[in-house]
Amino acid sequence: MEYSLYRDTSEESIFVIHEVWRSQADLDAHMCTSHFLTFISRMEALPTATSDVKKMNFII
Q1: What residue numbers bound the domain in which 16 lies?
Q2: Which of 19, 58, 23, 50 is nearest to 36 (CA)?
Q3: What is the total count of domains within the chain?
Q4: ABM domain location, by residue (predicted)?
């Protein structure tokens, strides 16, 4: 698993989390963990938080 956190250079309230998983099964398992579910519930409680999740395939 690879994990990176980015902050927008012009808008400090915008973050991007980039994750690379070995398999869909590993990602599915992660999404059921208590720390992930806690993170999601805390994010949803923030009045200005939005999420845009995209699954992508590595090309080069």
Answers
A1: 2-45
A2: 19
A3: 1
A4: 2-40
